[in-house]
Amino acid sequence: MYIDWHKTFLCAAMALLSLSSCVKDDMDDCPASKVSIQFNYTYNLKDADAFSTRVRNVNVYVFDGNGKYLMKQCQSAEQFAADYTMDFTGLEPGKYTFACMARGKQESEITNTDKEFLFSQLTRSASGVDDLNASINAPVNDYEFTPLFSGHTTVEYNGRSITDTICLKKWTNRYRVVLIPYSSNMDGFDVENFDVRITGIANTLDINGKSVGTGNIIYTPYRSTLITNESNEANVNGQPVDKALVYDLKSSRLFENHPEQRIIITDKRTGRELFNHSLPWLMALYNGSLRNLQWGDQEYLDRQDNYFLTFYVANPSTDFYLSAKVKINDWVVNLQEVGLK
Fold first, then answer.
1. Residue where one domain finishes, among candidates 145, 170, 195
2. Which pLDDT tens digit goes with each residue over 64-112?
3. Does residue 272 lie within any of the structural domains?
4. What is the pLDDT of residues 179-221, one digit of tens each?
5. What SS3 class is residue 86?
6. With the CA atoms of 215, 271, 307 and 166 taken in that order, what torsion angle do they form, in degrees rounded to the nearest 10?
7. Structural domain contains residue 240
8. Residues 133 and 220 in one domain
9. In this structure, is residue 314 part of a structural domain?
10. Does one domain contain both 273 and 222?
11. Is the alpha carbon torsion for 283, 260, 193, 221 positive or negative?
């Protein structure tokens, strides 16, 4: 049987060319390559991802290989899906930094702008990663401001679709300070007669949570409440407790070895400072009670975000005016044993 190999080769070549043309024509229907960014928030006490339950607003800033700002994408949701992804298309192959500033509220819910963390306004091709900060303008803050998160990742993009993850950390804390009378029927035991405040330095934070501001800030209660005990079931020093003062405050990040971050309690009636103490040192004591050997004090302070402190206040007419025991969450600290700072 005679086979014309020349004709056979020519037909095969034409078929391949036709197939190549079809593939090229179909490229218009192919999805564009992209960089997909996912998020998690596992840097907490439970070491479990709480992104979908704690974060309500994400702002992702894109910087090129020279560290210059290119673009920003934002998204708010009542609740993000656990596998929520933010896609970026139209990027040229290269190295990119994706930096995220996130909040625990939707952007539309941010109203008190002087007392909330606000994000830097960046200029395309001029601003750098170091210019991206979150700042509170008010020098005294008595507001229940929104939780702040941040994180970043670097991606080597070769033109093909790729997925990476930004791991967020939380930089805000909540405190409930409770004052309990050391004896029953103490006169003048009202919220107006005591000043509770936290002094701080972290009014401006970068994407790594580093304090980059030069100003100080004071946090005062956003809510102060007198709570009465109708049942008299609780007692202190063998006497029934009929009332307690509750002060709720917030602050930004705590830094170990920064004693200027302090909790100060003053009796306004006498002008006496009942308590003036390094807050990071005091809060880090609780880390030892957890016996978590893999966490240093700073990591514990960053993972923990909710503190409950109880102080026992004596009558101002007595020689002593504050019990040496302070209850932090469910752990009692005897300050006479550990020493004050």
1. 170
2. 999 999 999 999 999 999 899 999 999 999 999 999 999 999 988 888 8
3. yes
4. 988 777 788 899 999 999 999 888 999 999 999 977 789 999 9
5. strand
6. -10
7. yes
8. no
9. yes
10. yes
11. negative
325-332 contacts, C-beta under 8 A, 24 or more apart = 326/282, 328/282, 328/283, 328/285, 328/286, 329/286, 331/285, 331/286, 331/289
Identify whether 63 is part of a domain: yes
CATH code for position 270: 2.60.40.2090
Q: In the numeric block, which tokens belong to residue 266?
A: 């003053």
Nearest of 171, 213, 197, 338 to residue 279 by alpha carbon: 197
In this predicted structure, the answer to whether residue 51 has a pLDDT above a threshold of 70 is yes
Q: State the residue range of the domain holding 265.
A: 173-334
- Give Cα separations from 325 to 59, 182, 190, 281, 341 (angstroms): 43, 11, 21, 15, 15
Cβ 191 vs Cβ 226: under 8 Å = yes
Query: What is the CATH classification number for the domain harbouring 74?
Result: 2.60.40.2100
Positions of E strands within 104-181: 118-119, 133-135, 140-141, 148-157, 162-167, 169-170, 172-181
Number of domains in the chain: 2
Task: Work out the burial of residue 205: count CB atoms within 10 Å of its CB; fewer than 13 is exposed, 13-18 middle, 19 or more buried.
Answer: buried
* pTM (predicted TM-score): 0.85
Output the CA–CA distances (angstroms, integers) from residue 151 to 39, 221, 279, in the order listed.
Answer: 9, 29, 25
